[in-house]
């Protein structure tokens, strides 16, 4: 029983070892396959990346080819148009050539007909001549036979009558011969006359046909020469078109370079403008600080003066001559947004100063009187995309002035100068088709009511319009012949309110700092009391 268990255990152990060996072999096989599949996966990834790179390159190439295709399509359209025109000319020439060939064929047919008629007449003349010869031979043969018969008869007749018969026969034969000769001569003369007439007609028709054929040959030669000339012109035009295409490509490249150059210059200018704005903001900040210091000093001076006057009254001393500063006040209109900002800040500070002075307690007495006034502020904004700009406009609507800022003459044919006031109706002045504005020159368009005489090209008068018009919001712009705006100038009128304060001891205005102390950026932060 123990041996049976041992043998059973050994058999199961052998089976387990066999299964283990098979599992190890299968594992090794699977690992090999996994390695192969990993290598294939890496190769597929590499090929996929390469395909993606090729695809991106191909897409870029496709875009370039599309651009080239569109350009070639446009060039092909132009060449096809030229080809159509040349084909139309060639068709006309072919029609003329066909017409000339038809005329030549007709002339050739007429020549052949006349030739056939001539040959027919010659054949008829030859047949008549042969018939004449044949009849002559027949008549001669008859005469010989008749002579033989008469000879035989004469032999048979009596010798006494022989001489008589011979003389009669001779006389009859001579008469017959004479008649026959006369008939032959008449017939021959008629035949010769008919032949000569028909021959002359044939010669005339042949000469006419020769002339027509020669003219047709000349026309054919001229048509061939014209076709050769047109072919040469076509080749020269194709060469010119190719040269023009090369020139267009060069100009496009130059334009791209110039565009890039101007873009860089524009970026530099914008950077400079940004720096200037920053500098202006810094200067405004410094100016505001100086104004704050000045206001504080003025308040201190006023307080010390009131204290001094109170002490003088308490000690009953002779009052010192009070210092009075009188400043002239000026109000002006400005088109700069920074100036209006500074003035608004000044008005605010003056109102603040008045409130602080009125709210201070225990520091003397004083009266402050204020009055408000209003003024109009005009702001103008101008821009131009080309060489022509709107240089100046009259606020009363009398004229508008344009200027050519380039070094080349500018054609203003069919251009329109338009103006719109607020939401009102638009008016437009149209230039003549041949008007040209010289380089660096200006032109002024006056209204009819301005009383100015028409003196082109620098002074023009709008005869159909009395005035350009006035208003609070004026927009004047220049439009070229294609309807694009090339220059604009806007004028805006707004009302500004200002407060004026008068102190019984001192008066200060918006421009006092510059009139008394100079520029705050260049002077020291101090104030003198007179």
TrEMBL record:
Origin: domain of life: Eukaryota
Classification via SMART domains = Filament (SM01391)
The segment annotated Disordered runs over: 311-376, 495-530
Keyword annotations from UniProtKB, A to Z: Coiled coil, Intermediate filament, Lipoprotein, Prenylation
Major subcellular location class: nucleus
The record's listing under InterPro entries reads: IF_conserved (IPR018039), IF_rod_dom (IPR039008), Lamin_tail_dom (IPR001322), Lamin_tail_dom_sf (IPR036415)
Q: Which residues form the signal peptide?
A: none
Subcellular location field: Nucleus lamina
Ranges for domain IF rod come to 1-315
Q: Which Gene Ontology terms cover its molecular function?
A: structural constituent of cytoskeleton
Q: Which GO terms describe its cellular component?
A: intermediate filament; nuclear lamina
- Which residues fall in a compositionally biased region of kind Low complexity? 317-344
Coiled-coil segments on the chain, per record: 6-131, 227-286
GO BP annotations, alphabetical order: heterochromatin formation; nuclear envelope organization; nuclear migration; nuclear pore localization; protein localization to nuclear envelope
Q: Where is this chain compositionally biased, Polar residues type?
A: 514-530
PROSITE patterns in the record: IF_ROD_1, IF_ROD_2, LTD
Q: Where is the LTD domain?
A: 376-493
Entry's family note: Belongs to the intermediate filament family.
Q: What is the protein name for this chain?
A: Lamin-B2
Species assigned in the record: Dryobates pubescens
Origin organism lineage: Eukaryota, Metazoa, Chordata, Craniata, Vertebrata
């Amino acid at each position: 029983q123990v041996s049976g268990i041992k043998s059973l255990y050994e058999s199961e152990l052998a089976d387990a070892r066999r299964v283990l060996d098979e599992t190890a072999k299968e594992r090794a096989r699977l690992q090999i396959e996994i390695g192969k599949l990993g290598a294939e996966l890496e190769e597929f990834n590499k090929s996929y990346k390469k395909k993606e790179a090729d695809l991106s390159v191909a897409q870029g190439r496709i875009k370039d080819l599309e651009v080239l295709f569109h350009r070639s399509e446009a060039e092909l359209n132009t060449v096809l148009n030229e080809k159509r025109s040349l084909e139309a000319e060639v068709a006309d020439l072919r029609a003329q050539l066909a017409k000339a060939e038809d005329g030549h064929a007709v002339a050739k047919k007429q020549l052949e007909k006349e030739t056939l008629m001539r040959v027919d007449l010659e054949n008829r003349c030859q047949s008549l001549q042969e018939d004449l010869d044949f009849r002559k031979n027949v008549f001669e043969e008859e005469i010989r036979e008749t002579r033989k018969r008469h000879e035989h008869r004469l032999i048979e007749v009596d010798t006494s009558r022989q001489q008589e018969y011979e003389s009669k026969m001779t006389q009859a034969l001579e008469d017959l011969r004479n008649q026959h000769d006369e008939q032959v001569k008449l017939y021959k003369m008629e035949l010769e006359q008919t032949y000569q007439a028909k021959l002359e007609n044939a010669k005339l028709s042949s000469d006419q046909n020769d002339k027509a054929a020669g003219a047709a040959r000349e026309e054919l030669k001229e048509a061939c020469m014209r076709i050769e000339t047109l072919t040469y012109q076509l080749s020269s035009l194709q060469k010119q078109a190719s040269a023009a295409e090369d020139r267009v490509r060069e100009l496009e490249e130059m334009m791209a370079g110039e565009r890039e150059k101007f873009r860089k210059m524009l970026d530099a200018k914008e950077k400079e403008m940004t720096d200037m704005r920053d500098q202006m903001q810094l200067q405004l900040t410094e100016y505001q600080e100086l104004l704050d210091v000045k206001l504080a000093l003025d308040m201190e001076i006023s307080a010390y003066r009131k204290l001094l006057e109170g002490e003088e009254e308490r000690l009953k001393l002779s009052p010192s001559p009070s210092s009075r500063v009188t400043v002239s006040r000026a109000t002006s209109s400005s088109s700069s947004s920074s100036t209006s900002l500074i003035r608004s800040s000044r008005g605010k500070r003056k109102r603040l100063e008045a409130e602080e002075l009125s709210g201070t307690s225990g520091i003397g007495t004083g009266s402050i009187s204020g009055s408000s006034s209003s003024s109009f502020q005009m702001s103008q904004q101008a821009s131009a995309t080309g060489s022509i700009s709107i240089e100046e406009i009259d606020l009363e609507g009398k004229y508008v002035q344009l200027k050519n800022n380039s070094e080349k003459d500018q054609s203003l044919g069919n251009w329109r100068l338009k103006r719109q006031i607020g939401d009102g109706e638009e008016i437009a002045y149209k230039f003549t088709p041949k008007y040209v504005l010289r380089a660096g020159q200006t032109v002024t368009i006056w209204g009819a009511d301005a009383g100015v005489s028409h003196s082109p090209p620098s002074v023009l008068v709008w005869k159909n319009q009395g005035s350009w018009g006035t208003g609070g919001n004026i927009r004047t712009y220049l439009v070229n012949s294609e309807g694009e705006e090339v220059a604009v100038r806007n004028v805006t009128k707004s009302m500004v309110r200002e407060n004026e304060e008068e102190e019984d001891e001192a008066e200060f205005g918006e421009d006092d700092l510059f009139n008394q102390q100079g520029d705050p950026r260049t002077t020291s932060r101090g104030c003198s009391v007179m």
